[in-house]
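_Backbone structure tokens_
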Amino acid sequence: MKFGIALETFTPPGKSPSKNSIFQMARTAEKLSFDSLWVWDHLLLGSRKVFPVLDSLTTLSYLSAATTRIKLGTSVLIMALRNPLIVAKALTTIQIFSDGRLVVGAASGWYEREFRAAGVDFKKRGQIFEEEFQLVRRLLNEADVNFRGEGIELDHATILPTSSTKIPMLMGGYSDRVLNRAGRLADGWISYYYTPEDYADSWSKVRAGALEAGRDPRRLNSVTLVPLAIANSFEDGDNLSKEFTRNYTDLPKNTRCTPEASIRGTIPECIAQIKKFEEIGLEELVFIPSNYDIEQVERAGNEILPAFSK
């Protein structure tokens, strides 16, 4: 199983993402042999109380220069808010400058005010996302692309230069329809705050979608993000992860997302919880360090990762 770290590119009101902290955590994660770094994505979030958030793709461009080996991912890119040609051009540029380290997690989004601000029909976001996801993939991997859609016309479009390394494109989302879509169209599924049991159940639906489309589900990537709260006891870790979730996260309604998915407690307790993800065959577990404390990353790298090295 691979391990990643989510970076503090998104903060609650009254705090702002720190370039220096992001840089330090990224370099620390790479030094400790984590496999990936992940950034959040929004254009606008909050009105009277604004949640500061850095642009995801610009941040990854910076991180591509600040690191050398570690994979760089979006969790998740709200693709429907952006023009697909501009998205594809940005992605292929990051892929070139990172020497093929980009991983795209993308989803349809949930914040209606953000869609109104971007001039995108919120009620059609699922349809728009599915169409754009496929178009971006074509632009990244094909030459001479022709397309006619609402407000978009591509005549023999070819993006150059491109990287020789294909960009994995994962889908996020939780409904049965979305899980089926991920299996049919994406290179895998990415979630967050899902317990091993709930992830396994949803993953079976992703695999079923792949089989229905004549695709090999064994080729799909499985990724999930969960809080990490290493502490002196399970109770202390549980309290830490739940407080962190209250301060930073509004978990999506009508899903199985829950703070109970957190990895928390002593090192042995954390390892035991992670092994449950390993048992369901999860490919990559991404830690959201509680309060984005770099000590959580250091302890995980030095005391948890060795238990899973092959």
About this structure: The mean pLDDT is 97. Residues 38 and 73 are 5 Å apart (CA to CA).
